[in-house]
Amino acid sequence: MLYLSELLIQNPDLESFEQLYRLVLESKQREMFFRIDVKPPFPDTPENWEDRLEAAFT
Questions:
Q1: pLDDT tens column, 4-51
Q2: How far apart are CA 44 and CA 2, in angstroms?
Q3: Which of 47, 50, 51, 42 is nearest to 19 (CA)?
Q4: Residue 31, SS3?
Q5: How many CA atoms lie within 13 Å of 19's alpha carbon, on the beta-carbon side?
C-alpha cells in the first residue's frame, strides 16, 4: 500500500503539487492501493487535491 505521507517523506525534494501528481502517476505501477493520510504542504495544492491524486492513481 502506498501512503501519501510516505511518498512525501521519501521525496523531500518535491516542491509543488504538480511534481507530487507526476510521482503518484509513476507510483501506480508499483502499488495496488493508495491511501491519502495527509494534505500536501505545497502552496499550489488545489482545492480538489484529493480527487486529483485518486484519479492519478487509478
A1: 999 999 999 999 999 999 999 999 888 899 999 999 999 999 999 999
A2: 22
A3: 42
A4: coil
A5: 13
Residue 9 cell numbers, joined: 517523506
CA–CA separation, 32 and 3 (whole Å): 11
**Whole-angstrom Cα Rg for the chain:** 10
Counting every residue, how long is the chain? Answer: 58
Cell representation of residue 44: 499550489
- The three cell numbers of residue 29 are 505501477
Domain ranges of the chain: 2-57
The pTM of this model reads 0.90
